[in-house]
What we know:
Layout: E1 11-14, H1 20-28, E2 33-36, H2 37-49, H3 56-77, H4 83-86, H5 99-105
Parallel strand pairs: 1-2
Helix pairs in contact: 1-3, 2-3
Amino acid sequence: EKGLRTSTGLVVETGSAREVHHFALLAGYGAEAVHPYLAMETLADMARGLPGDLSPEKAVYNYVKAVGKGLMKVMSKMGISTYMSYCGAQIFEAIGLSSALVGKYFK
């Protein structure tokens, strides 16, 4: 309401973001950074139980790299070349929600 949204950064710490689409949606509505703590903890726990030389740190690194590449693919298909151009662009449709509700919270 005071027009200060663009002068702040939005960091989302969530346990529900797991797939590239989840990250793309959060970014499309303004998240400049996302910390998927549950996905990272799950991958680290899974890596500890696996035979071989995959460390928990390497498993999380591979996940972050894969999500980054996935986001680049999504953005390139939409003709967007930088994350900051994508961030807050509101290019997704909120199906099932009234436009008045979406307009109230996501101006």
